[in-house]
C-alpha cells in the first residue's frame, strides 16, 4: 500500500514576526512615532513595572512604577529649567491611573512646596503648603483647596486655627494676633469674621501691644 505524505503545515512567517514585536519583560529604549522614548519593563505590549519615560515635546522625565501603560505606584516627575536646562523635580510620590494619588511632594515655581495627600491629581486629604511669602498652611484639603480643619501661620507668626471652606476661613475659628498680644475667637464666613470676642492674649510678650488693655466684661 503506497504511503501518502502530506506536506507539514508551516506557520505563517508573520506570526513569528508578531511574537517578536510584542514587548514583554525588560527592553532597551523604545521610541514612539512622536519621538517620546521609554526604557524599562513591559507586559503584553504595555509599560508595566519599572521604567523611565522621556517626552520629546516638553523634555519632561518620569521615572518609577507603571501599570498597564499608566503611571501607577511610586515615581518622580521632573522638567528641565528653561534657563539652566538642568532637571528639577516637580513631583515625587505615589501615582494611580496616571495621576497623583496618595502621599507626595510637589515643588511649584517660586519656591512654593506642598507635602501631603493627593487624590485624582488634586490636593485632597491632609497636607502642608509652604507659600512664597513665608506663610504655612497645615490641615485638611479638598479638591486643591484648604477645606475642613487647618492652621495658617503668617510670616509675622500670627496664625489662624479653625474651619476652612473652598480655601477661605469658614466656621468657628481663632485668630492669634501675637504681634499685638490679642486673640479673636468667633465665627467666620468666606474669610470674613462675622461675630466673636477679642481678648488680650500674651500681651506682655507681644512686640507691639495696643496702648490700652481690653477691659474685661
TrEMBL record:
Q: Which Gene3D superfamilies match?
A: Histone H3 K4-specific methyltransferase SET7/9 N-terminal domain
**Domain of life of the organism in this record?**
Eukaryota
The record, for SUPFAM superfamilies, names: Histone H3 K4-specific methyltransferase SET7/9 N-terminal domain
Q: Does the keyword Transport apply?
A: no
Q: Which UniProt keywords apply?
A: Cytoplasmic vesicle, Repeat
- Main location (coarse class): cytoplasm
Offer a single GO CC term for the protein. Answer: acrosomal vesicle
Cited InterPro entries? MORN, MORN3
What subcellular locations does the record give? Cytoplasmic vesicle, Secretory vesicle, Acrosome
Question: What is the role of the protein in this entry?
Answer: Assembles a suppression complex (suppresome) by tethering SIRT1 and MDM2 to regulate composite modifications of p53/TP53. Confers both deacetylation-mediated functional inactivation, by SIRT1, and ubiquitination-dependent degradation, by MDM2, of p53/TP53, promoting a proliferative and cell survival behaviors. May play a role in the regulation of spermatogenesis.
PANTHER family attached to this UniProt entry: MORN REPEAT-CONTAINING PROTEIN 3
Q: What is this protein called?
A: MORN repeat-containing protein 3
Name the gene that codes for it. Morn3
Amino acid at each position: 500500500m503506497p504511503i501518502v505524505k502530506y506536506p507539514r503545515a508551516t506557520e505563517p512567517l508573520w506570526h513569528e514576526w508578531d511574537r517578536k514585536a510584542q514587548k514583554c519583560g525588560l527592553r532597551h529604549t523604545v521610541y514612539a512615532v512622536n519621538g517620546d522614548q521609554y526604557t524599562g519593563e513591559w507586559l503584553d505590549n504595555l509599560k508595566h513595572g519599572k521604567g523611565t519615560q522621556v517626552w520629546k515635546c516638553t523634555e519632561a522625565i518620569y521615572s518609577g512604577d507603571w501599570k498597564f501603560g499608566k503611571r501607577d505606584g511610586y515615581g518622580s516627575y521632573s522638567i528641565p529649567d528653561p534657563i539652566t536646562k538642568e532637571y528639577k523635580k516637580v513631583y515625587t510620590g505615589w501615582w494611580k491611573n496616571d495621576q497623583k494619588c496618595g502621599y507626595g511632594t510637589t515643588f511649584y515655581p517660586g519656591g512654593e512646596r506642598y507635602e501631603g495627600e493627593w487624590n485624582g491629581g488634586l490636593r485632597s486629604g491632609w497636607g502642608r503648603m509652604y507659600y512664597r511669602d513665608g506663610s504655612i498652611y497645615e490641615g485638611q484639603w479638598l479638591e486643591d483647596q484648604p477645606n475642613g480643619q487647618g492652621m495658617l501661620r503668617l510670616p509675622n507668626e500670627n496664625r489662624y486655627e479653625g474651619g476652612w471652606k473652598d480655601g477661605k476661613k469658614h466656621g468657628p475659628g481663632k485668630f492669634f494676633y501675637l504681634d499685638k498680644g490679642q486673640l479673636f475667637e468667633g465665627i467666620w464666613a468666606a474669610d470674613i469674621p462675622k461675630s466673636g470676642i477679642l481678648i488680650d492674649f500674651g500681651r506682655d510678650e507681644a512686640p507691639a501691644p495696643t496702648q490700652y488693655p481690653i477691659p474685661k466684661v
